[in-house]
Amino acid sequence: MDFWYKEAQTNDLLLGVRVTDILHSETTPYQRLAVVETVEYGKMLILDGAIQCTERDEFLYHEMIVHVPMHVHPNPKRVCVIGGGDGGSVREALKHSSVAKVKHVEIDGAVIEASKKYFPHLSSGFSDPRVDVLITDGIEYLKNCEPNCFDVIIIDSTDPVGPAVGLFSAEFYGYAYKALTWDGVICAQTESPFASANLLKKCWHNMKVHFPQVGVATGFMPTYPTGFWTYTVGSKKMALKANREVTIRGKYFTKSLMERAFDLPPFLQEMLEGSKKNL
Amino acid sequence: MDFWYKEAQTNDLLLGVRVTDILHSETTPYQRLAVVETVEYGKMLILDGAIQCTERDEFLYHEMIVHVPMHVHPNPKRVCVIGGGDGGSVREALKHSSVAKVKHVEIDGAVIEASKKYFPHLSSGFSDPRVDVLITDGIEYLKNCEPNCFDVIIIDSTDPVGPAVGLFSAEFYGYAYKALTWDGVICAQTESPFASANLLKKCWHNMKVHFPQVGVATGFMPTYPTGFWTYTVGSKKMALKANREVTIRGKYFTKSLMERAFDLPPFLQEMLEGSKKNL
Fold this sequence. Notes:
homodimer, alpha/beta, Spermidine Synthase, Chain: A, domain 2, Rossmann fold, five-stranded antiparallel sheet, 9 helices
């Protein structure tokens, strides 16, 4: 028997992954959710036809989206994770000993439940007393949030379709700016510079509307389109570098990686700097 | 009309790329060769069902496989490129002003002809008087080559199937060792650490049979399996770092990249060091 999961990564690109079992499939109020077992990547979480994470390569993504912005902040105590219902970003944030509170805002509680059941390694942080989970719309949450609430905000969103579209807007980054402390830092996943160049440029410009310092970090991510992923970081005051000792050594993230995290390849720097505001 | 090129990257992984035109298709004495036009990546060269290069992302691969080993050598004058009939590696090698001669050994002359016709940007180096093209088997060539002939040898092979299998063997690395000068450097493309972990481990061990210093550099490569590629470098005498001024600034390769080119992520370092010789 020959079962494949095939993702249309763009109109013109497709990734196929051999599947050995469909462990879970449901339609939540927000999206279609599936958990499958694959040969190459172990268990895989799929939302609305897009691979969210796999057992084998999730560390590459979660270490980047969390540890890069967390080291830009000199002393992150209060962290907000928007999206990322699988729990991987929460898990990584908790590795920083300075962290007193992680507010996790996820629109779809079914993702958290599926992760607790099928991805215990990803969802391990949910039982930590420092974590406060809120099932609600992240945009509304940050819009109405008290100012100066968070040191670091992580936008661990799905692709920019459906309810996640607003998470890539200048308006939303403005809410995040207000919710951050004076030395606050934001990090958003901003897709592939090859498959989604315009989206990346748009996010970069949108973040620059509010944040005086914006940088882009890149990292490998085999199960995302082109394997080449970006994380856009905005900072209110702190320079885009490690502003404290790099205390984390992950499977991918290291002190050395942090030292050149914002050192973009020339083709990408030119792509961003040559891009127009109105995309 | 909906045309796709679908590559079985492994038994369990598939990449699909939308095709708008088939420009060329032939069966050479060595392999099936096709050139297609794609939406995402421009023109694409395919050999025996495996994407070799595309107009849009080839620079990522060619800059890594050439400029990393070329900077490990203090003064590379004589370079040998085995494989790489598209000409991308030859083109990059010629950018080093120290280079007096590039010996290009390709088993299949049809690849060079196709590149000259469809990829003028890749094949531009073939008209340089420093380039000497030899259509023959790279293994036999290095086996019978005079000792101390080359400062740098670049193994720009296809995947380890068919005639290319021998290009990943310890025996072949031994021929290369002999053909290199006392401070010579070799670099081989060694596939993806996710899709071909065992092959990478094997090459690393095989190269260590002969070369006292062996390092692995990693780089993005969207159209190769998992987008995550490795380049294994062996050095007879020189330390694995830039041993001269970094004079090249490419679209991807920079001085900064060279400074941490051999700085492997912990998961990959552990994978290599924990691996056994007999794979």
